[in-house]
Design a protein that fits this description.
about 80 residues, mainly beta, about 0% helix
Length: about 80
């Protein structure tokens, strides 16, 4: 099995007037599927809007090892 090389997963905080959410940017080489809290989101590169609190992010690609991140998104941090 090959190793999926991730370039960056960056926690960025966004304040939306109607939705309190956090934006995380997921990038990888090669491109991989992104799963957020057991729901398919798309392929990298992708920006995800997540709710405050603990979130699970998986990078998955056939014939590569999966990468898992547990992210504690905090509302209002910059």
């Amino acid at each position: 099995m090959k190793i999926l090389i991730w370039l960056a997963i960056i926690l960025l905080i966004a304040s939306c007037q109607e939705i309190d959410s956090t934006i995380i940017t997921c990038e990888s080489t090669p491109s991989a599927e992104i799963w957020l809290n057991d729901r398919y989101q798309g392929v990298t590169p992708i920006d995800l809007y997540v709710d405050p609190g603990w979130n699970e992010v998986w990078f998955r690609k056939l014939d590569y090892y999966s990468i898992f991140w547990a992210i504690n998104a905090k509302e209002g941090e910059h």
